[in-house]
């Protein structure tokens, strides 16, 4: 795993004297432009699926900083997602629905919600700084149970079992709600508008995490993961680093929570359970531990696959129509999803990013412009 | 990020050209997206009937958002199978409005993400939803349902769903059902003013809505409610029975699942707390009669339900029971079958009336349903004229009965208690 993070060193040393950017840059650019025009073509289902994937990617980047790069197991990620999602609702809500709401501008509410998730992580960090490995995993498990209890019972704040409405995000006079906005004759609703917000947030979050991982803090984090005592001897303030990473990871989760809430348009307590935490762990393991691209790839895989399988499940072979007896499409989709997870872990132990990393070696005879496009 | 960039400068022109060409193609095509707006609502189709979404000259597509792999898997399976049965029978008779019905089923497994995704996927293709399990999810897309105007018949009986023209609750809600249940306890089981009434309920939608009903009855009749909140994962009711026994309750209401009801009744009987116990319709399944709690259940347990049980001798239930058993011989008959059938039949009735009015658009169907009054689908009388009220205030009181088909028999026929009429939602 650590080779992923030692690679950048020679790259940074490459003299930046070339006049023309390489083909890789164009591939990235084309990919980015493609993402930019997707809302003009895709129907709401796909945009929504993409948005879920983007939110998951942001959350997974945070967890990968903590678990992948620093070696701290956290089962409490769903709790911090919930803090972000409900925090946003509470800061931005105007109290018209009878629930606690401060009525702040929504952009400020989003920032504060991320901050609140960070504070929640900070409150927990004395524990996170002392425990490690499986012990921290068990300790963070408690957060899930406390969180779910509060979500179901603090009616005035969370709306209880039925959740609460999420105020639509608005910034610079643009409101991200279903009020139709015609762009090139294409009606823009919530999903289309949020798509761009999601892209911006994901890009910013990804670049920031990349910066952290490639700089001094990243090396310190890897040192803590690989050998804590050695890291301490070399002068890394271990407890402080571990606590700080925990806070940072919580803030990423908080941001993911805000975006998720905006996509759902309503926060529902059921969602923020243990299964969600496990899904995030699955994302980083499947994508690749310790790197931003691993988190993004894993998040896209884990959040899109079940939706795609469910959507196309009735055209699978050996499946009978739901409600007519036999294996139902929903069951078949679950089996396939499970099988895919096992196959990835079994055959790609380094995660899906290994696919991209391995390919050039196998086909080095014919270099092509697309190699290393590790998306 | 992880690959060496040794090949960077090799053959850059070809790749560059390809990338640029791709960009141009994308940019050029942006002008002719299929999403671009061209509204053509209200076309007249076959037979001069106006249609918009989900209806062609040959088919009417209805969405089904069910749960066949999650916590409500048993209910979802029965409901969906009953609805498929309805569609099959309706199509065998030539369909509705000269068009065949078709169900598009998506199983969300009680996962909010999949439920919302399922709605987004099906909404542009279907006329309405004959089934939508999970009231939090219905609430999540409520705003969109209001703009989309598609008729949704949720398989949930929470009062929080009332008030929309497009989301119509079938049968009495949990609060009404509980009020009728306590009315039965007071009129026929000797519960009187000043008594203590135990209420064991699930945390969440269902339980808390039922509790609102028992609190209202307590206020009206001078009862004291002893609350015991439980989680769906609590299966052993020993602690709750001990607490209720200590409090000296004279009767117990349970708003939980069948397993909790069996445990509650069994433990209560074993510890000598022989008071009448009544449950909401979700707190009973005929499978319980195969457990050790069966004798106690038959002796002291009652269920309040919005519709006739499937084992009833009346024409509707007995025909459905026979047809369902013939179509799905391996599956047991439960109340989910009735609920699913009633929803499908209600939708069918609305479609028939919309067809008569030559308007099979979404708004046409909504309007047709609003005109249905005093309509009996074979399991109870429904009135859809008021969106802020459930379609029925009646409850039938049934009891577990090994000898009866479907495992239950009627104790008190469909009745609306006075308290249910005066209850303000």
From TrEMBL, chain A:
Topology term for the membrane: Multi-pass membrane protein
GO cellular component: plasma membrane
Gene Ontology MF terms: branched-chain amino acid transmembrane transporter activity
Source species, domain of life: Bacteria
Major localisation: membrane
UniProt key word Cell membrane: yes
Localization in the cell: Cell membrane
Keywords recorded for this protein, A-Z: Cell membrane, Membrane, Transmembrane, Transmembrane helix
Entry's transmembrane regions: 25-42, 48-66, 78-95, 107-127, 134-152, 194-213, 243-264, 280-305, 335-357
Tagged with keyword Transmembrane helix: yes
Family matches, as InterPro entries: ABC_transp_permease, LivM-like
Protein's name according to its UniProt entry: Branched-chain amino acid transport system permease protein
Lineage: Bacteria, Bacillati, Actinomycetota, Actinomycetes, Kitasatosporales
From TrEMBL, chain B:
Signal peptide: 1-29
Pfam annotation, one family: Peripla_BP_6
Alphabetically ordered keywords of this record: Signal
InterPro entries named among the record's database cross-references: Leu-bd, Peripla_BP_I
Domain of life: Bacteria
Domain Leucine-binding protein: 59-386
Family: Belongs to the leucine-binding protein family.
Descriptive protein name: ABC-type branched-chain amino acid transport system, substrate-binding protein
Organism encoding this protein: Streptomyces indicus
């Amino acid at each position: 795993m650590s080779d992923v993070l030692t690679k950048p060193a020679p790259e940074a040393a490459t003299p930046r004297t070339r006049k023309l950017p390489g083909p890789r840059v164009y591939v990235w650019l084309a990919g980015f432009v493609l993402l930019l025009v997707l809302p003009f073509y895709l129907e709401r289902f796909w945009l929504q699926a993409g948005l879920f994937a983007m939110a998951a990617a942001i959350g997974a980047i945070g967890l990968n900083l903590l678990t992948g790069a620093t070696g701290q197991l956290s089962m409490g990620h769903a709790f911090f997602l919930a803090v972000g999602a409900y925090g946003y609702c509470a800061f931005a809500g105007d109290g018209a629905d009878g629930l606690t709401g401060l009525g702040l501008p929504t952009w400020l509410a989003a920032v504060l919600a991320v901050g609140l998730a960070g504070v929640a992580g900070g409150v927990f960090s004395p524990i996170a700084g002392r425990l490690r490995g499986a012990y921290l995993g068990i300790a963070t498990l408690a957060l899930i149970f406390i969180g779910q209890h509060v979500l179901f019972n603090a009616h005035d704040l969370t709306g209880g079992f039925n959740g609460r409405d999420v105020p639509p995000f608005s910034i610079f006079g643009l409101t991200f709600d279903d009020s139709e906005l015609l762009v090139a004759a294409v009606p823009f609703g919530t999903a289309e508008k949020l798509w761009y917000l999601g892209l911006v947030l994901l890009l910013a979050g990804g670049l920031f995490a990349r910066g952290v991982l490639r700089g001094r803090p990243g090396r310190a984090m890897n040192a803590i993961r690989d050998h804590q005592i050695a890291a301490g001897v070399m002068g890394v303030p271990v407890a402080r680093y571990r606590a700080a990473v925990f806070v940072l990871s919580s803030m990423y989760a908080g941001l993911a929570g805000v975006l998720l809430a905006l996509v759902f348009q309503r926060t529902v307590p059921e969602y923020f359970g243990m299964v969600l935490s496990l899904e995030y762990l699955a994302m980083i393991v499947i994508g690749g531990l310790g790197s931003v691209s691993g988190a993004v790839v894993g998040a896209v895989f884990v959040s899109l696959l079940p939706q795609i399988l469910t959507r196309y499940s009735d055209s699978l072979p050996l499946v009978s129509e739901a409600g007519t007896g036999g294996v139902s499409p929903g069951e078949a989709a679950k089996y396939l999803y499970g099988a895919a997870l096992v196959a990835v872990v079994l055959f790609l132990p380094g995660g899906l990013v290994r696919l991209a990393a391995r390919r050039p070696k196998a086909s080095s005879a014919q270099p092509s412009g697309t190699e290393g496009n590790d998306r | 990020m992880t690959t060496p960039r040794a090949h960077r400068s090799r053959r850059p022109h070809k790749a560059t050209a390809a990338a640029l060409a791709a960009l141009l193609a994308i940019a050029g095509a942006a002008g002719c997206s299929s999403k671009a707006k061209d509204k053509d609502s209200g076309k007249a189709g076959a037979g001069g009937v106006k249609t918009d979404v989900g209806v062609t000259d040959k088919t009417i597509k209805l969405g089904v958002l069910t749960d066949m792999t999650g916590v409500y898997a048993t209910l979802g399976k029965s409901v969906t199978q009953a609805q498929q049965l309805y569609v099959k029978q309706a199509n065998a008779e030539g369909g509705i409005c000269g068009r065949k019905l078709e169900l598009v089923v998506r199983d969300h497994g009680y996962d909010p993400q999949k439920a919302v995704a399922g709605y987004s996927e099906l909404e542009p293709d279907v006329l309405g939803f004959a089934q939508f399990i999970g009231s939090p999810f219905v609430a999540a897309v409520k705003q969109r349902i209001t703009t989309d105007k598609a008729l949704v018949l949720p398989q949930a009986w929470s009062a929080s769903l009332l008030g929309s023209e497009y989301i119509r609750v079938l049968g009495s809600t949990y609060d009404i059902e509980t009020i009728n249940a306590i009315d039965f306890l007071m009129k026929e089981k000797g519960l009187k003013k000043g008594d203590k009434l135990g209420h064991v309920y699930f945390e969440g939608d269902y339980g808390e809505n039922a509790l609102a009903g028992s609190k209202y009855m307590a206020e009206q009749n001078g009862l004291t409610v002893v609350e015991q909140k439980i989680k769906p994962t609590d299966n052993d009711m020993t602690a709750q029975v001990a607490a209720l026994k200590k409090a000296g309750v004279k009767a117990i209401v349970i708003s939980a699942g069948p397993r909790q009801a069996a445990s509650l009744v069994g433990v209560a009987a074993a510890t000598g707390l022989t008071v009448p116990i009544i449950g909401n319709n979700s707190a009973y399944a005929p499978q319980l009669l195969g457990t050790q709690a069966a004798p106690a259940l038959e002796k002291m347990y009652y269920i309040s339900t919005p519709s006739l049980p499937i084992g009833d001798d009346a024409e509707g239930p007995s025909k459905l029971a026979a047809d369902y058993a013939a179509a799905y011989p391996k599956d047991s008959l439960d109340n989910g079958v009735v609920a699913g059938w009633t929803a499908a039949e209600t939708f069918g009735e609305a479609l028939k009336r919309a067809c008569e009015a030559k308007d099979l658009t979404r708004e046409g169907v909504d309007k047709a349903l609003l005109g249905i009054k005093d309509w009996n689908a074979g399991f109870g009388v429904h009135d859809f004229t008021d969106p802020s009220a459930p379609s029925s205030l009646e409850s039938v009181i049934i009891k577990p009965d090994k000898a009866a088909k479907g495992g239950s028999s009627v104790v008190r026929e469909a009745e609306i208690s006075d308290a249910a009429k005066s209850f303000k939602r």
